[in-house]
Specification:
The chain is mainly alpha-helical. Helix content is about 65%, strand content about 0%.
């Protein structure tokens, strides 16, 4: 007779209860990680969005020692998009890229040379929206195995789980950089963005 302390599903299926608990625990941990990663990526992107909306038209294309605001925003979104892919080959083959050739052009951002292209605020608002949708889709589809697997990028020797954290840090780095630039030119500080989801 099965022990009354075991859940019904454990003894009906004949599974070892401790193994089932381990799998349940791992599933819960993966779901918690996905919730946290999603929240932090979306919060970082929302912080970046503030710089898109708050930067004056004059400052948008203004030369700066770092780079023009539009190029820093594009760089940030470009790598957000890239690191959400499972491998570099997937990046250029996305439908969004095919339908926005005027934005991606020759993919100079991925080259080891100073950027020349400029991007309108409207182009980057659209790319931002694409990245937000992609974050939700990609993080939602991750599994225990995919998160434990390699990042998919030879130059990022870490797990897929870590590359998502790296991605959030990269977004936040550039959002803070642009936010400080905006504040030093007399604008208000960026609003703190709490957890999102």
């Amino acid at each position: 007779m099965p022990s009354s302390s075991l859940p019904c599903s454990a003894w009906i299926s004949g599974m070892d209860f401790s193994r089932r608990i381990g799998e349940t625990q791992r599933t819960m941990e993966v779901e918690v990680y996905k919730k946290l990663a999603l929240s932090q990526l979306l919060a970082a992107l929302e912080t970046l969005q503030q710089t898109i909306e708050r930067t004056s038209d004059e400052a948008w294309y203004e030369d700066h020692t770092d780079d023009q605001v539009n190029r820093v925003v594009f760089h940030t979104l470009y790598y957000t998009d890239l690191y959400l892919c499972s491998a570099p080959e997937e990046f250029r083959n996305q439908e969004y890229h095919a339908s926005h050739r005027e934005v991606f052009r020759d993919y100079e951002e991925g080259e080891n040379r100073p950027p020349q292209h400029q991007y309108s605020r409207e182009q980057l608002r659209d790319y931002y929206d694409f990245c937000v949708r992609k974050v939700r889709r990609v993080i939602g589809a991750e599994t225990d195995d995919s998160l434990a697997g390699p990042s998919g990028f030879s130059w990022r020797e870490c797990s897929r789980a870590e590359v998502h954290l790296y991605n959030a840090r990269h977004i936040q780095h550039h959002a803070a950089q642009l936010g400080l630039r905006h504040q030093l030119s007399g604008g208000p500080p960026l609003r703190w963005v709490g957890e999102r989801g």
